[in-house]
Amino acid sequence: MQLSGCAKSQQTIRVATFNVSMEADNYRSSQEFANQDDSTLLFKHLATGTNQQIKNIAQIIQRVRPDIILLNEFDYTHDASIGPEAFIKNYLNVAQQGMSAIDYPYFYYGPVNTGVGSGVDLNQDGEVEESGSDAFGYGRYPGQYGMLLLSRYPIDLTNVRTFQRFLWKDMTNNQLANITHPDGTPWYSDEAIETLRLSSKSHWDIPVQVGDEIVHVLASHPTPPVFDGPENRNGLRNYDEIQFWSDYINADETAAYIYDDNGNRGGFNGQRFVILGDLNAAQNEGDGERIMLANLLAHPKVLQHELPTSRGGENAKKENPNAKYHTAQWGLTVDYVIPSKAGFSIINSGVFWPAEGEPDSELVKDREASSDHRLVWQTLRLK
User: Fold this and answer.
1) Which parts of the sequence belong to the Endonuclease/exonuclease/phosphatase domain (predicted)?
2) Beta partners for residue 135, in sequence order
3) What does the CA dihedral 45, 98, 371, 27 come to, rounded to 10 degrees?
4) Domain residues of the chain, as ranges?
């Protein structure tokens, strides 16, 4: 796969998303700190600068060299010095296997709903657990599967909008009424409905100053539409987490129900946006609520484009006509860079997935090499 360098111009940026699987459970069997059941394992590895899996992730980022990149499944801690700052200093600022080091002077890193107890029995097993399936978002500990945005351009932190605590019930035309037991009775109790948040992690609107222009990064990581039962509570939550962005970018009465964590109401207020993240849904295959993902991609405010491709994905499942668009090792398109129609044109794009035998293919051999997802990127011209 050939990657042309991103032009050093205020008018051109490379934007990417990458589910990096950088959460503590992923490192429990590694040689360092082996078999420790410890929610701080990621941060221990970030401090060493020697974990090969994280070095490979850094090498992929150095290879693609995005100006702005969202990392999904990067554990959250309130102490940024042991999280993003350690990753930047000990891995990204260090040249990996002949690549040039890369620096991200700016980042956004905030709390998420995973592992945060809801105080109610969400999975209907008769017990209220402090984490797991009774958390606002599934996680063994608070902050698991978090999000991190890295940027080579300044972030307008004052005007970031987050929607971590937005209640699902407050969403217009939500799917809660369709989540039922086999006999048709509601799955969630009245208490649960009054408590449950929409975002399994969070939804973020992050303004990035690119020269004289503002680019809004709309970041999220909806719940996987599996690991539930016939009530389909995760599938329908995934649907509504994606629907949220469709409503938000309408920026009209459709978005009037939306309020952020500071109490400000309404939808998108800007010109350019890029929706980034592992959306855990595909429009043509898989277990997700495909229609909502298809609706988002076809939204009148989204720039219509062919999805990024890779030769590695295509070769992995040659019998599947969608394989060249796949972004996950297990064979689905779930990770997206979705730019607005306003203010952008696409120069080029790709999925970092070298075919077997090509240079750097060892970096994506399996999850242990880097991640079970692939970095997805687009080079965009501002206009």
Assistant:
1) 16-373
2) 117
3) -20
4) 12-382
Quote the distance between the C-alpha of residue 335 and its chain's center: 7
Task: Read off the DSSP letter of residue 134.
Answer: G
Separation between Cα atoms, residue 261 and residue 118, nearest integer Å? 17
**Tokens 């698991």 identify what position?**
144
Enter the DSSP assignment of 259.
B
Structure tokens at 342: 């306003």
Instruction: Render 278-315 in DSSP notation, one character per residue.
Output: E-S--SSSSSS-HHHHHHHHT-TTBPP-PPP--HHHHH
Asked whether 241 and 258 are in contact (CB, 8 A), the reply is: no
How sure is the predictor about 32, in pLDDT bands with cuts at 50, 70 and 90? confident
Structure-derived torsion over alpha carbons of residues 286, 360, 32, 38, reported in degrees to the nearest 10: -30
pLDDT in tens, 249-278: 998 999 999 999 999 999 999 999 999 999
Cα–Cα distance measured from residue 302 to residue 131, given in angstroms and rounded to the nearest whole number: 36
Cα–Cα distance for residue pair 333/256, rounded to 1 Å:
31
Yes or no: say if 151 and 67 are a contact pair by the CB < 8 Å rule. yes
Q: What are phi and psi of 69, to 5 degrees?
A: -145, 130
Which residues does 353 contact at the CB level (< 8 Å), separation at least 6? 1, 310, 311, 312, 313, 316, 326, 327, 364, 374
Q: Give yes or no for a contact between 82 and 66, defined as CB atoms under 8 angstroms apart.
A: no
CA-CA distance, 346 to 247, in Å (whole number)? 24
How far apart are the C-alpha atoms of 282 and 284, rounded to whole Å? 6
Reply yes or no on whether the pLDDT at 9 is more than 50: no
Query: If one looks up domain 12-382 in CATH, what number appears?
Result: 3.60.10.10
User: Is the distance from CB of 147 to CB of 70 less than 8 angstroms?
Assistant: yes
Collapsing DSSP to helix, strand or coil, 74 comes out as strand
Farthest-apart Cα atoms in the chain, separation: 61
The one-character DSSP state at 222 is P
Q: What mean pLDDT, rounded, does the chain reach?
A: 94
pLDDT of residue 290: 81
pLDDT at 288 over 70: no
Average pLDDT over residues 163-183: 97
In whole angstroms, give the CA distance from residue 275 to residue 263.
22
Q: CA 327, CA 68: separation in Å to the nearest integer?
A: 18
pTM for the full model?
0.95
**Residues in the chain, total:** 383
**How far from chain centre, in Å, is Cα 291?**
19
